[in-house]
Structure formats: C-alpha cells, structure tokens
Amino acid sequence: MILYFSATGNSKYVAKRIADATGEKLISITDCIKENIHSFTIEPGEIIGVVSPVYFWELPEIVGRFINRCEFFKTEDPYCFFVATYGRNAGISGRNIKADFAERKIKLSARFDVKMVDTYTPVYYVNDEKENDSINQKAEKQIDKTIEQIKARETGDFMINIASPWAAKLSRIGYEKARLTEFFSVSDSCNGCGKCADICPEGAIKIEDGKPVWKEEKCLLCLACLHRCPQFAIQYKKSTQGKGQYTNPNIELE
Ligand SMILES: Cc1cc2nc3c(=O)[nH]c(=O)nc-3n(C[C@H](O)[C@H](O)[C@H](O)COP(=O)(O)O)c2cc1C
Ligand code: SF4
Ligand code: SF4
User: Fold this and answer.
1) Is the CB of 221 under 6 A from ligand 3?
2) Which residue has the CA at smallest separation from atom 6 of ligand 3?
3) Are 48 and 106 in contact (CB under 8 A)?
C-alpha cells in the first residue's frame, strides 16, 4: 500500500508512479482521515510506503498524526519506505517518519527524496514554466531510480538533501509564526465556488456569505487553497503576489 499526502500534486504523482510500478494500492491520507479509516492489514509480501511533502524541514503534522492513529495488522515485518518530495531541503522529515513508524512497531527500511517544484510561494516563484519543466524532467530520473530501488527492496537512507535536528528546531519556530490563518486574504475575483473549503485537509475553511472564512487560528499552511483556487483569489500576506499558482501537471487533482 502506498499512502500519500499531497496539497498540490507532486507527492500524489510520485505515489502513483510507485503504485503503478509495484502494483500496490494507492491510498490518500486525506481521504482516510475524512472517512475515519485508520486500520490496515498488511498481507505477507505487501509493502508499505508513505509519500509526502516537506513543510519547514519536517514531515507535515497531518502525516505524523495519521500514522500515530493507525493500527497496522501484519504477520511479518513488511518492507517499509518513505519518499519526501521537496523543493530545496527535505530537513528531518525522514527522521520524523522513522520515529512515527517505530511507535507503530514498524521498522522503516528505506527513505528517499525527490526534488520537485517548491510550492512555498511566500518565498519562491512558480510562474516560470520552463524552469518548472526542467525541475520535473530531472525529477523523473530520480523517481525512476527510486522505483527501481523500491522494487529491489533496497534498504538504507538514500535522502540527499537533509538538515540537522537543531536547524529543524529553528525552522519549527518559523513555522509556528507563519501558519496563522489571519495571513490569508481573498480578492473580489472569488466567486464563492467553495472549492477551497472542500479541499482543505484540515477543514479550516467555511464558506460564509459566498466567501471563504478561515475558522481555525492555525492551519497546515499546505497552500492547497491558494494554488488550486480556480480564480487565484487567495493570497498569503502580500508575499505570494506575482509568484504564481502551481499544481503538478502530470496528475489529476479533484
Ligand atoms: C508550508 C510549506 C513549507 C515547505 N517547506 C519546505 C521545506 O522545508 N523544504 C523543502 O525543500 N520544500 C518545502 N516546501 C515545498 C514542498 O515540500 C514541495 O513543493 C512538495 O513537493 C509539495 O508537495 P505536494 O505538491 O504533494 O503538496 C514547502 C511547501 C509548503 C507549502
Ligand atoms: S476556491 Fe477560490 S473562488 Fe472558490 S470559494 Fe475559494 S477563494 Fe473563492
Ligand atoms: S486553509 Fe489552505 S493552507 Fe491552510 S490547511 Fe487549509 S488548504 Fe491548506
């Protein structure tokens, strides 16, 4: 089974490539949370993998929370892997998930990372299509290699760009300051379609009087609402203006 969390499609695309190549089931963590599915049987010979983005050098909180709530029934130790999709540095996401699986009595066999378009538009630009294409073409090679390693059940730490735990601690302080929903605004181009509310993995948005309203003080900051709004009506502070909207072009998102 290949479990994935994805706000803008990079991780979903990688997870689907792996699922197609291995014949494993593709399972959305967001869907499982919405449907309250937290128990899984791992059949003998079945593998378990998680594909996820990196947020502020860590595993997104929602993924850790999900793994921690799960029960995995197994008769033998499965091959278990993690793939981080990241823009610049995968931080300590591999360490995070290793610890989460250890709590569930599953040993992480291998961890990988794939560099993809960085969706953190409060800082980075995603509006240069040529640059995005070039990043995605390079990513294909890394995905191909990762799939071969998974199929061969290779074990070890194959992550390339990682950070030290102390540096990640500093990054977490930045995350806590950044993830306040008061920083989001909506422009007049919003037509009240409700998509942002439907896709928010945290259920943080409600539509009131035809406009989104953020109901939680903090959210994941996954930016699904911003990148997937059909009107590009959502901004984060002034810092996302002019930086573009991005979803992975190789995969369909709802
Ligand atoms: C809030 C946020 C924080 C991010 N932090 C990092 C980071 O620390 N390091 C990094 O390399 N990429 C970071 N990124 C980029 C994403 O991890 C990367 O683009 C990922 O492939 C997105 O996956 P998705 O399309 O499946 O959601 C961040 C993106 C967001 C939205
Ligand atoms: S997705 Fe965009 S247009 Fe639709 S309600 Fe949300 S902000 Fe408005
Ligand atoms: S409000 Fe937007 S950025 Fe925050 S968790 Fe929901 S979709 Fe992601």
Assistant:
1) yes
2) 200
3) yes
